[in-house]
Amino acid sequence: MSPNPVVSLRGVTKSYGPNRGVMDLDLEVGEGELLAVLGPNGAGKTTSVEIMEGYRRPDRGTVRVLGLDPVRDRRRCIPQLGIMLQEGGVYPSLSVGEAVRLFAAYFANPVPPGELLELVELSDRVRSRYRTLSGGERQRLSLALALVGRPRLLFLDEPTAGMDPRARLLTWEAVREQRRRGVTVLLTTHSMEEAERLADRVAIINQGRLVALDTPSALIGAGGGGVVELETIEALTVEGQARLSALASVERSREVAPGHYLLRTASPPQALVEVASLLRDEGPQVLRLQVGGGSLEEVFLELTGGTD
User: Per-residue pLDDT tens for 63-87?
Assistant: First the structure.
């Protein structure tokens, strides 16, 4: 890690009455790094990010963002941040062009509005009212507004939610371009593909605690062995799942969804034979049975208990 991290959290704890937000969170984000934060709903990732953004003060612990306390030094900190919210934060009656010009007026050296709209491919919507935009277009406008002040640290909350595949690729490339310029990016997402493609490291938060922090490839490889993926036309019974888990070659198994199972094994070929034999004799019809090399999604499910 950088000797002068852009974000540093030490022993950060935040509760809401009897409900725990985050507990003893230690985290650093280096300059120019893209960190993806993953976690089930209610795991504490939103609280963690809002503390970094200065919207919430922790009950205890220390927070430094760009070397500053994001609450006490908010006036100095906020001009250096770009924050993309899931829900746009734009007046419905504003046009696209008006929104970008309004946000640009808050900064001493903003990116020219025309350049931003070209980047997110909204130049042809410059006169369109915010309320008339599709969900994906609103997300692209929100990204433009987050970039207008040339931020050193960029917070992206579900940046591609509601986007079609082409818009998603466009957004990913825009994010990569920010990293090439040295911008530090903190991304919260439910998309495992997005995290795998973009992130230098992935932080997984569950029940208010940091349960994993590493590169995507290291997290995927940490389980060792391989993975067998099974889909059946009907969900297995409790007894059927128990027999599946008890197979000699299966180290552990997880039901991702009814009829969809991931099996960790040290010997995928043997596991394929054993699973096929079991289901041939007494199981439901197989829709898919294949060997995989493991995935970030599997790691996520293993660490969070399969909830989201």
Answer: 999 999 999 999 999 999 999 977 7
Yes or no: say if 6 and 63 are a contact pair by the CB < 8 Å rule: no
From the CB of residue 224, how many other CB atoms can be counted at a distance below 10 Å? 10
- Whether 1 is in a domain gets the answer no
Q: Considering the entire predicted model, what is its pTM?
A: 0.80
Percent above pLDDT 70 for the chain? 95
Q: What is the CATH number of the domain that holds 87?
A: 3.40.50.300
Question: CA-CA distance, 138 to 148, in Å (whole number)?
Answer: 15
Q: What element of type H or E holds 60?
A: strand 60-65
- State the chain's mean pLDDT as an integer: 90
Q: In the predicted model, what is the mean pLDDT of residues 35-60?
A: 94
- The sheet carrying 60-65 orders its strands as 19-29, 7-16, 60-65
Angle at 121 between CA 116 and CA 126, to 5 degrees: 70
